[in-house]
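Quick check before the chapter quiz. The format below is the same one you will see on the exam, so make sure you can read both the input and the output lines.
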Amino acid sequence: MCSGHGTCGIDDVCTCYDNWGVGLGHESGDCSERVCPYEIAWVDTPNKLGAFHKYAECAGRGICDRALGECMCFEGYEGKGCQRSSCPSDCSGHGTCEYIEDMAYDATWDENKLKKDLTNGDYTFAYDGEWDLNKIRGCKCDALYHDIDCSKRLCPHSTDVLDTRLDLTDNLKYQVQNIVLIPTTTNNDIRGSTFALTFKSRLNETFTTIPIVYDASDLPDMTHDIQSALLNLPNRVIDGITVAGKIITVPDLGVAVNITFTGDSVQGPQHLLQIETYVCAEGCTPKITGLDLNTKYDYGYYSNVTEIQLADFNSYECGRRGKCDYNTGLCTCFSGYTGENCNTLTTLV
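Here is the expected output.
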């Protein structure tokens, strides 16, 4: 009698209620066994039309418990119908488990070659994937931690003090980042507004400057303020930069500022700076009034941060002159070298 979970037709065949029935096991024509959740399959065989990633019981990555109607997922998969991957070691308590669509654009608003519609200047951050949305996950590690499961500490980076240049007559090339600030109104209307810059170190620590006053009428003073704000970030994460700026007058649009990273700890490639333009008032730090910037492509310019010169310095863990202790995040320098990142030669006697 269809086990009380279906109706018996005139042909003596059971029509099972939802979640009861044959399922993939083909063992419960009497509606006595549960059907497990169906989710988009991780791997399957295309049909005659070439369609794949169809719905499958337990997404093809688990075994159905017919008594409970629940999936027993294989290692590395979890959730209803085994629809999502699990993060290794739950990110070791030093990170968060993120979906792939949330990790596509991670660092700054211009670092990942954003899609741009030149018709209206809009930017798109949407993930291009289809079937793997809300399925594939990975660890996004906290600052000072790395590896696939965020189990290892990061050690300080620096250039190799004995790295030899192929052509010693070439000029040294430091990384140069270009910051373009295009206000939505004229320079005069926005004068006195404040913004901030955020720097992300090679250890993935983020540091935000004190408020910086926007004043295109006194560009030397503004560039000096930018330089001072960056050099005064904690722990000397930026130990040397030069800043130069110019007015963009096509028409009176805004300013462009070049920041050259020259310090020993920042000579190699660095993350792009991020402009903080939000309003940060009472109970917020840094306390900034905000800067209303135009990110649309007008007159050949738009507000952005780009790298205009690639550093020909490398940036190595422990300066390539020591070994990293991944438990402590400290460098053990080779004989003849010292410093937290092993980039200082000791005196030979």
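If your answer matched, good. Confidence is low (pLDDT under 50) at residues 106-123.
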